[in-house]
Design a protein that fits this description.
Blueprint (H helix, E strand, L loop, with lengths): L3 E9 L12 E8 L12 E7 L6 E8 L5 H13 L9 E9 L6
């Protein structure tokens, strides 16, 4: 079996508790190997992607922020990608982590 990636999973309720669940947006933030730097280390790539509910499958596009070298830079790059989808990370709720195969065929 191959390597696994760890996703941070969030939900954005779009700022209004009166919205129905189908207006919520789920997304993941994942450190992946990039530019020769292993996932989870400085200089690795941060990946951001919206997710389908309830399967948590990726909803393209997957946005890579290659060569992130510090937490502050990663935070800004991720927030920029999310804003393009109308998501405010500051208002989003962290709901957990999941490990998934790096290669989807390793399920």
């Amino acid at each position: 079996m191959g390597n696994f990636l760890t996703d941070e999973i969030y939900v954005d309720k779009h700022g209004d508790e009166d919205h129905l669940p189908d207006t919520w947006t789920y997304f993941r933030v994942t450190s992946v190997t990039g530019l020769g730097n292993p996932e989870g280390t400085e200089g690795s790539t941060i990946q951001v992607c919206r997710l389908k509910w309830p399967t948590f499958e990726d909803v393209p596009p997957v946005v890579d922020t290659p060569g992130i070298v510090a937490l502050a830079v990663a935070w800004e790059a991720v927030n920029t990608a999310l804003k393009n989808w109308g998501i405010d990370r500051e208002e989003s709720i962290f709901i957990g982590v999941r490990d998934r195969p790096e290669n989807p065929y390793d399920k």
